[in-house]
C-alpha cells in the first residue's frame, strides 16, 4: 500500500480523495494555487505545497510543479481527481518515468478512449453496442452521403477530437449534409486543431445512462450499476440518479455484464465510466471516461462501496475488494450539483459565502469544500458542493431530497439551490419521465 498520496486537484474532489486516503491510513499531500491557500483541502491535508499562481495552466495543470511537489514531499502516488490532469496520457507517462504511481488506468487506455473514433472502434470490438455510423473519419461528401443514406436521417456530424459537447452538427436531410459537414470540419479545426469528423445516427429523445466499472488491470472487472444523468444543461449534468428510473433489473444486469466483460478483456485498471445514450430499449455507446466522475457518490450510496478506496487498492496492486456477486443495489440515490451561479441566467457568482449550512440526517451526504466565510475564487469551475440523498426507493429519496434542500443555506452569493427546489416539485421529474432535452426545454419555458 502507498505511504503518501499527493492529490493533484482542488475543491470538493480533493477533499473526497483525502477522506479515502485517511481512512486507509495513508498520508496526504495537498497542492494548491495561490488563490486556494485557504481552501479546505489544504487545511485538512497532512502537508501542502503551493504550485503556482491562480490560472489553472500555471498550477493545477502544471505537470513539472506537481512532479516536483511529489519529489519534495516523498509522495509515492498521485490521485488526479476529475478534470485537470485526470485524462492526460502524457501526465500518466511522466509519472511512470519518475516512479510515481498514477491512480488511474494506463496511459495507453487513456489515449485510446480520449480519441472518439478510436474509442468507438475499441468499444465495438469489445462487444459494447455503439451508435450506427461511419467506421472512422469521413473525408469526402460522397462517402458521407452514402453512409447517411444507409443509417437514415437525421444524422449527427461529430469531431473526432471533440469534447464538452462542442463540434457537433445535425443534418436532418441530405440537402443539409454538405453544409453541416463543412461547418463541423471548420469548427473542429479551429477548436481542436484537428478537422477529422465522423457521422452517426442522431437520436431524437435519448436518455443519458452510464455504467460504472472498476477493473484490477489483471483481467478482472466489476460493474456497479448505472447512473441516469439525463437532466443536463448545455451538455453539463445537473442532476444524477442511481438506479435509472428507465431500467429494470434485467436491463441493468445485461448492460452491466456487457461492460464489465469488455473492461476485463481490455485489462482495464481503475475506475471508469462507459457513457451511453439510451432510446427505445437500446444502448448506444458515446464515450468512456477513464477517471472518477463528479456523480460517483450516487453509485456509492446504493452499493455501499467506496470507489476511491477501490481506485487506491487497485493502483497499489492490491486488487479489487469485491467480486461481482458481492455487489447489490439498495434503494435509490439522487445527486444535485449546486453551483455558484444565478439560478435563472446561470451567470457565475463568485464571491464570499457569508453563511453556509448543510443539511444532515439519515441518507444525506454533502460533498463540498466550502465553509462560512469562504471566498469562491473566480478562476475555476462554479461547483459549491454536491448534495447526495439516499432512500429505500425513489419516492422516499425524493421526499428526503425536498427536505434536505429546504435545510441547505448558502448566503452571500447566488446559487442554483432554487432550481433544485423547483425540479423536486415537478411532476415529470417526480415520475422520472425525462430525456436529455427535458431540462433545456423546461428552462426555455419557465426561466
Ligand atoms: P463530448 O465529448 O463533446 O461531450 P459526447 O459524444 O459525449 O461528446 O456527446 C455529448 C452530448 O451530445 C451527449 O450527451 C448527447 O447529449 C449529445 N449526443 C452525442 N451523440 C449523439 C447522438 N448520436 N444522437 C443524439 N445526441 C447525441
TrEMBL record:
Span of domain ATP-grasp: 120-316
Root EC class: ligase
GO molecular function: biotin carboxylase activity
Keywords linked to the UniProt accession: ATP-binding, Biotin, Fatty acid biosynthesis, Fatty acid metabolism, Ligase, Lipid biosynthesis, Lipid metabolism, Magnesium, Metal-binding, Nucleotide-binding
Alphabetical list of PROSITE patterns matching this protein: ATP_GRASP (PS50975), BC (PS50979), CPSASE_1 (PS00866), CPSASE_2 (PS00867)
Catalytic activity: N(6)-biotinyl-L-lysyl-[protein] + hydrogencarbonate + ATP = N(6)-carboxybiotinyl-L-lysyl-[protein] + ADP + phosphate + H(+)
Residue stretches making up the Biotin carboxylation domain: 1-444
Listed InterPro entries: ACC_Biotin_Carboxylase, Acetyl_CoA_COase_biotin_COase, ATP-grasp, ATP_grasp_subdomain_1, BC-like_N, Biotin_carboxylation_dom, Biotin_COase_C, CPAse_ATP-bd
EC number: 6.3.4.14
Pathway the protein takes part in: Lipid metabolism; malonyl-CoA biosynthesis; malonyl-CoA from acetyl-CoA: step 1/1
Subunit structure: Acetyl-CoA carboxylase is a heterohexamer of biotin carboxyl carrier protein, biotin carboxylase and the two subunits of carboxyl transferase in a 2:2 complex.
Record's function text: This protein is a component of the acetyl coenzyme A carboxylase complex; first, biotin carboxylase catalyzes the carboxylation of the carrier protein and then the transcarboxylase transfers the carboxyl group to form malonyl-CoA.
Protein name, UniProt field: Biotin carboxylase
Organism encoding this protein: Chelativorans salis
Gene name as annotated: accC
